Amino acid sequence: MTGTAQTMDRQPPGEQEVLAEITRMLAAVLDEYGLDESEVTMDSRFTDDLELESIDLVTLAAQLQERWGERINFAEFLAGMELDEIIGLTVGRLVEYVVARLRPEAAERS
Amino acid sequence: MAVLEIDGLPFHVQRLSPADGRPPAATLVLVHGLLTDSLASFYFTMAPALAAAGAEVFMYDQRGHGRSGRPHTGYRLERFVADLAALLDHSFPAGPVHLVGNSFGGTVAFGLAEQRPDRVASILAIESEPASPAWAAKLDGILRRAETELVRTSTLAWVAAERGAHTARLARSAGRLLAVTSLARDIPASLLPGEERLAAIACPVLAVYGTESDLVEQAAWLDGLLPRCRSAFVSGQEHSVLVEAPDAVLELTFDWLREQGVVLRGAAACDLQRSAR
C-alpha cells in the first residue's frame, strides 16, 4: 500500500495525539452547531453527548481517511456493530481503533 | 467531503470502490428515503460489504437531505428522479446500473426505470412503492402530520422516550427540512406515471418488506403490475428494515445480485460456494 513506508518511519501516534486530532475533526464536522472542544473526552458518546447525527459520522469517516489513509475504514469498523452499539459509540473506541490500525504490525497485515 | 454540483445544487456523494482494487463486478447506486433518511443509512449498513464483495458502490444525499443542498422549493418526485439521472450521467455515463432504493428512494428508482430504462439494470426496492395516486394521497397525509408534529417539543420528547435520542435528533432535522422548504406540498403534487407506464418497467425488481409493515399489503399488487417483480419478506421487521436488520437485507441483496449474473468476490463468493454444495 502506498504511503505505508513513510508512516512507518516514525512513531505511530498514541491515544492523546489521535484524540486531539479527532477532536479537531469533530469541531469541523459540527461547525454549524459549534462544539466546545474541552467537552470531548474518551468517554464522550457521539450521539448522546456530542449530538452527532449519522450523516455527521459519514463526514467524520471521510476526514479520518483523508488524514490517516485507507487503513482507517470507519464504515467497515461500524458495519460489524449493532445499531444500538453504533448509537452508544464513544470517542474512545474510535481512538483505540485508529491507534491499533496505525501500528506497524497492522499496516503489514493490510 | 465529495460534492458534485448538478444544476447549481451541491450533492454530497460517497463512493466505495471494490475492496480488492480489481475492476468492479457491478455498479450499485443506493438511494435513501425521505425526511429522516440520508446516505448514512447505507454507508453504515450494506455499503462496505458490497464494496468488499467487489461492487462499485455510489451513494448520495438527495436534495434537501443530509449534506446536500437544500433549496426552498423544487421537491416534486420528478426533480428527485432528474437528480438521479444527472448524477448517473455524470458518474457512470456508460451502461445501466443496479439500483437499491430505501422507501422513497425506491420510488425514485422506479421513476428512473420508467423514464430512462436504458440506465437501470435492476431495482431492489426496500419498503417502497412506485408513485401512484394512492402513494401521493398517503404521503400527503404523512407529510402534513409531520410538518406540524415534528416541530413540537412534546412530540420530539415522545420520540426520544420511545425511539431514543438519535431518532429524536433525526426527527428534529426532518422538522427543520419541512419548515424551510416546500417539500410537504411538492411531493403530493408530483407528476404521477399511469399504471400502464409502470407496467412497462421491464427490468427485474425485488421488493423487500418487513412482515410487520403496512406496505406488505401492496406486495401482491406490485408483483402483478410489474412484469418481472417478486417480493421477499424479513420477518418481525417494520418499515426501518434496512437499518434494523442490515444483515438480512444484505443477504437478500447478495442473492439478488447473483441472480442478476453478478460474480461476487471476497467473503460473498465463499457464501456462494457453500450454498452450491
CATH architecture descriptor of chain A: Orthogonal Bundle
Note poorly predicted spans of chain A: 1-6
Question: What sequence of helices (H) and strands (E) makes up the elements of chain B?
Answer: EEEHHEHEHEHHHHHEHEHHH
Could you tell me the strand content of chain B as a percent range? Answer: 15-25%
Our count of helices of chain A gives 7
Overall SS class of chain A: mainly alpha
The coarse silhouette of chain A is: globular
Instruction: Specify the structural class of chain B.
Output: alpha/beta
CATH fold node name of chain B: Rossmann fold
The separation of the N and C termini of chain B measures: 44 Å
What is the domain tally of chain A?
1
Number of helices, counting only DSSP H or I runs of 4 residues or more of chain B = 13
The CATH superfamily of chain B turns out to be: Alpha/Beta hydrolase fold, catalytic domain
Strand portion of chain A, in percent?
under 5%
Main sheet of chain B?
Answer: 8 strands, mixed
Summarize the entry for a quick read.
Chain A is mainly α and 110 residues long. Chain A is 59% helix and 0% strand.
Q: Which descriptors apply to this entry?
A:
heterodimer; A: 110 residues; mainly alpha; Non-ribosomal Peptide Synthetase Peptidyl Carrier Protein, Chain A; 7 helices; 59% helix; B: 277 residues; alpha/beta; Rossmann fold; eight-stranded mixed sheet; 13 helices; 8 strands; 45% helix; globular
